[in-house]
């Protein structure tokens, strides 16, 4: 016969086990969420590798493939709102090291991206992100961004258009990496990159940004690990909205944009 004390201990043990199970479930959920956040913008921009956050279907027999196909979301197909790209091809040149610092941290700089979908105007923050702005001024003068595709659009959870890869795959870069800057920007409140922010993509590790950047068209929850280096103007936001409204190709909220977004010409100058 079970005594009252034994019964009390048994109930206490069962309660403890239930608590442990709930805590472990919460930890698993948090780990999954953090993994998504950490990789959703992670791009290896040197060395030819990539940490592109896309889903992968498991291989196997015909039944597995059929089941996986049934589970795939239906791609969202919208009309292409953009014009044909200007003639030309992306540059193939790379460099072994970051360009020598020449940016004036006390001056104002503006970047103009003439894309097939419209102009994206950006006010750059040389005072708080001098290495990044200096690199963009250098690359723009070299024509590095000209004729490059904006290869990625996210439409769920985070809301960004990603550009700056001459390969158009998420694997390209200038050959060098940049230090992280401005990660304590007061605008990044509550781990939110506000709409209108332009920031650097990276591998999720410190000091791994290269040339790839993302344009935030709607407030996006992200850890402050991606250098914010400017603010998109009103005309640029209109262009981004047009691109976002056309959707992306996978239907899963993360893929190539339906809009043919190509940067015909990029310029950076003192304003």
TrEMBL record:
Pfam families noted in UniProt: Pro_isomerase (PF00160)
Stored PROSITE patterns: CSA_PPIASE_2
Alphabetical list of SUPFAM superfamilies matching this protein: Cyclophilin-like (SSF50891)
InterPro entries: Cyclophilin-like_dom_sf, Cyclophilin-type_PPIase_dom, Cyclophilin_A-like
Comp. bias regions, Basic and acidic residues: 1-24
Gene3D superfamilies: Cyclophilin-like
Keyword entries, A-Z: Isomerase
Region annotation Disordered: where it falls in the sequence: 1-31, 56-99
Function according to Swiss-Prot or TrEMBL: PPIases accelerate the folding of proteins. It catalyzes the cis-trans isomerization of proline imidic peptide bonds in oligopeptides.
UniProt xrefs under PANTHER family: PEPTIDYL-PROLYL CIS-TRANS ISOMERASE B-RELATED (PTHR45625:SF3), PEPTIDYL-PROLYL CIS-TRANS ISOMERASE-RELATED (PTHR45625)
Protein name: Peptidylprolyl isomerase
Organism: Streptomyces triculaminicus
């Amino acid at each position: 016969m079970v005594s009252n004390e034994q019964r009390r201990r048994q109930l206490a043990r069962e309660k403890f086990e239930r608590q442990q199970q709930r805590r472990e479930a919460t930890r698993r959920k948090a780990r999954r969420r953090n993994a998504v956040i950490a990789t959703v913008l992670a791009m290896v921009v040197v060395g030819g590798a990539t940490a592109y956050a896309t889903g992968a279907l498991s291989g196997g027999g015909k039944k597995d493939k059929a089941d996986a196909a049934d589970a795939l979301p239906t791609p969202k197909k919208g009309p292409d709102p953009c014009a044909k790209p200007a003639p030309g091809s992306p540059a193939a040149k790379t460099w072994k090291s970051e360009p020598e610092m020449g940016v004036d941290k006390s001056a104002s700089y503006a970047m103009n991206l003439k894309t097939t979908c419209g102009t994206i105007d950006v006010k750059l923050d040389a005072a708080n992100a001098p290495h990044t702005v200096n690199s963009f001024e250098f690359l723009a003068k070299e024509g590095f961004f000209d004729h490059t595709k904006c290869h990625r659009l996210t439409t769920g959870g985070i809301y960004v258009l990603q550009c700056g890869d001459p390969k158009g795959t998420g694997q390209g870069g200038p050959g060098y990496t940049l230090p992280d800057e401005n990660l304590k920007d007061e605008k990044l409140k509550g781990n939110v990159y506000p709409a209108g922010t332009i920031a650097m993509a990276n591998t999720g590790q410190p000091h791994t940004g290269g040339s790839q950047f993302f344009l935030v068209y709607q407030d996006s929850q992200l850890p402050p690990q991606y250098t914010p280096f400017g603010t998109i103007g009103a005309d640029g936001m209109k262009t981004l909205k047009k691109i976002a409204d056309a959707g992306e190709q996978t239907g899963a909220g993360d893929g190539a944009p339906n809009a043919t977004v190509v940067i015909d010409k990029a310029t950076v100058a003192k304003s």
